[in-house]
Task: structure prediction
Amino acid sequence: MAVNDLTMTISSNDNTAKVLVIEDNQDLAENIVDYLELKGFNLDFAVDGIQGLHLASTNDYEVIVLDLMLPGIDGLTVCRRLRSTVKKNTPILMLTALNNLSDKLAGFEAVADDYLVKPFALPELPARLEVVNSEVVNNRINNTVSLANDYQMNAGFGIGLDLVKHLFEHFG
Result:
């Protein structure tokens, strides 16, 4: 599948994670898209930081794969804006050739969830996507169950509050 300068959506099984890939390197982007498509992921793709920030701000994704050195807006700025301005808690996997400790720490200071240095083996990417996504899901479940149990013991019925998705549920 060829990746061009347009945003693209690759649809597959509805039960798989929806992932946004923000990568300006044409060859790498094609490899990532082809590989993740074979693994059953649903993908949106952006070629620069401006387009990526727009897609991430206006859509819901389970995970974002974000290059650091992007045209338009760099990846660190995209990450910071998603966290502080847009208030998105979507897990972000930084994908970059920058491999110094200071670069990695800058990624984590921008509140990225993981950091993968190029070049990398393609089978590592879906493994990392599943890990960062499952960590967020587990945190959502734990937050909801903990609050529901606390309230249930005090009021005799249960509620669920997902602090990440901003959802409220009433049980009983």
